């Protein structure tokens, strides 16, 4: 049985792996595939957190949780703005690696803050609510199946507007993913397995 913290941390490790695959390679095809995978996972992860985790911060942690959620939403917006530029670049573009590094700097700080402070506080608050953390992890995984796979910063970071925009843009993203290259020669990542 997974907790929400372990589900989030798993995504964070995958993002780090994809980032390193791009940064440590000189092969443009490899960089493009893993850059697409990085974009796909980060877009879905961010919206999943905004729809499932941040409302839980507000619900279970009171005023402190609202403050944490707003701070994290601001972090996400900054990263989404940068990701919007990166996702449209080709790996042959001279800005490709520098733009990815520009994303990673605030993202890695955000990841550290979430894992060291925000998620432990949430897990502690959830201890008195039987199976809440594992149910939230399941909801987070399911949510990621239906959200956009590209960055859309104009959708915002607050439900319900973000939910509506996500449901409208996700099908277009998923169709376009068919024409993008991903690792292991896959045509498109399968959201039902992530």
Describe the structure.
The chain is mainly alpha-helical. It has one domain (4-189). The chain is built from five helices and no strands. It is elongated, with a radius of gyration of 16 Å. Residues 4-122 form the Hemerythrin-like domain.
List the helices and strands and how they pair.
Layout: H1 4-23, H2 28-86, H3 96-126, H4 132-146, H5 161-177
Helix pairs in contact: 1-2, 1-3, 1-4, 2-3, 2-4
List keywords for this structure.
194 residues; mainly alpha; 73% helix
Query: Which word captures the global form?
Result: elongated
Domain module tally = 1
Number of helices: 5
Distance between the termini: 16 Å
The pLDDT mean sits at 85
Helix percentage range: over 70%
Number of strands: 0
């Amino acid at each position: 049985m997974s907790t929400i913290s372990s589900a989030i941390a798993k995504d964070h490790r995958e993002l780090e792996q994809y980032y390193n695959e791009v940064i440590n390679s000189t092969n443009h095809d490899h960089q493009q595939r893993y850059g697409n995978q990085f974009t796909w996972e980060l877009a879905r992860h961010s919206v999943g957190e905004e729809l499932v985790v941040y409302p839980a911060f507000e619900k279970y942690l009171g005023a402190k949780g609202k403050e944490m959620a707003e701070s994290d939403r601001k972090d996400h917006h900054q990263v989404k703005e940068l990701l919007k530029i990166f996702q449209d670049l080709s790996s042959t573009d001279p800005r490709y690696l520098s733009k990815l590094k520009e994303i990673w700097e605030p993202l890695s700080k955000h990841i550290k803050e979430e894992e060291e402070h925000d998620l432990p506080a949430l897990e502690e608050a959830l201890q008195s609510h039987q199976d809440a953390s594992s149910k939230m992890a399941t909801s987070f995984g399911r949510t990621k199946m239906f959200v956009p796979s590209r960055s859309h910063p104009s959708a915002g970071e607050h439900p319900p507007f973000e939910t509506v925009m996500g449901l409208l843009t996700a099908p277009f993203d998923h169709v376009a993913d068919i024409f993008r290259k991903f690792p292991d020669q896959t045509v498109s990542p399968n959201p039902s397995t992530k």
